[in-house]
Every structure is written in structure tokens, then in C-alpha cells.
Write a structure and sequence with these properties.
- With 151 residues, this protein is an alpha+beta fold.
- It has one domain.
- The strands form two sheets. A four-stranded mixed β-sheet has the order 1-5-6-8. It has a four-stranded antiparallel β-sheet with strand order 2-7-4-3, covered by helices on one side.
- The longest helix has 15 residues.
- The radius of gyration is 16 Å and the shape is globular.
- The N and C termini lie far apart (40 Å).
- About 11% of the residues have low confidence.
- It comes from Aminithiophilus ramosus.
- InterPro entries: PrcB_C_dom (IPR025748).
């Protein structure tokens, strides 16, 4: 059994079989599938890719990876698409900051992370995006942008 599946199973069993601790969120494993920076994409936001009908949201450079990921999802996994929108320089990235199982729902926190102050970055328009796979069933997911710093 993969570590990914084991984490999902642990979360579900722990949340349902241990009412004493059900109010404490359980962290879940997740992993990135692909990312892109230089092809224009959608405005800032997060989307759940439920099936191939959602692929038009994803720019062409990531579409094949998204399609492959959708086809290989386990029954209790979900694919997310995160976009930072257009940025005036390089050095930005989209990141999942936390994935927690809290009772019957899975909370996914994500953020746009900017370059450190004074960092050398490319002087080009960028569009940071990422595909992320999480161990959670579709109806139980809540996407929330983490508290934003100025970016």
C-alpha cells in the first residue's frame, strides 16, 4: 500500500473511529504533479478537476499531465489546479501550505509565494500554476487561500 493511500486511510479511520480526537485536524500527505510559469493561464484561483471536462481550465503545457493524473487517480483522490494569475516578474510560485482532515471534510490551504526581498528574478511576465494530487474524495474538499502577504 502506498504511503499516499495509507495517509488517506488513516485520516478516514482516525476521524470516524476516534470521536475523542475528531475535533483535532489530522495532516494529510499530498504531492505536486506538475507546474508551469511562462504560459498564460487563468486568473488567481483554485479549482478541483473532477473529470476531463474540466481540462479546458488548464493551459496546454499542463493539460497532458493533468489528463494523465486524472486517469491514474485512485477512487479517493482528487486533482487540484492552482493559479497565481499574471505576475510582473519571476520568482513567484503557487504552493499548498497545508492539507488537513477535519472530521468529514478535507481543508486545503494554498498560497502564492513571492520572491524574497532583494532576490534576482527574471524580468518577464509569469503565470505560476501547479497541479496537486490530494488523498480526499471530491465532495469533502474545501479550498481556501492562506492568509496573503503582499505580493
Amino acid at each position: 500500500m502506498s504511503l499516499f493511500r495509507a495517509a488517506a486511510l488513516f485520516c478516514l479511520l482516525f476521524a470516524s473511529a476516534t470521536p475523542l480526537f475528531a475535533s483535532e485536524p489530522v495532516p494529510l500527505a499530498w504531492y505536486g504533479v506538475a507546474s508551469s510559469h511562462y504560459e498564460p493561464g487563468p486568473a488567481r484561483g483554485a479549482w478541483i478537476l473532477a473529470d476531463e471536462g474540466d481540462l479546458p481550465l488548464v493551459p496546454p503545457t499542463l493539460r497532458l499531465k493533468a489528463q494523465e493524473a486524472l486517469r491514474s487517480l485512485e477512487p479517493r483522490e482528487t486533482l487540484l489546479f492552482l493559479s497565481a494569475g499574471m505576475r510582473s516578474t519571476g520568482g513567484y510560485r503557487v504552493a499548498v501550505t497545508d492539507v488537513r482532515c477535519d472530521g468529514s471534510k478535507v481543508l486545503v490551504l494554498w498560497a502564492v509565494q513571492g520572491p524574497p526581498p532583494g532576490a534576482m528574478v527574471s524580468q518577464a511576465l509569469t503565470h505560476p500554476m501547479a497541479l496537486v494530487r490530494i488523498p480526499a474524495p471530491l465532495p469533502a474538499i474545501e479550498l481556501r487561500e492562506a492568509t496573503r502577504r503582499s505580493d
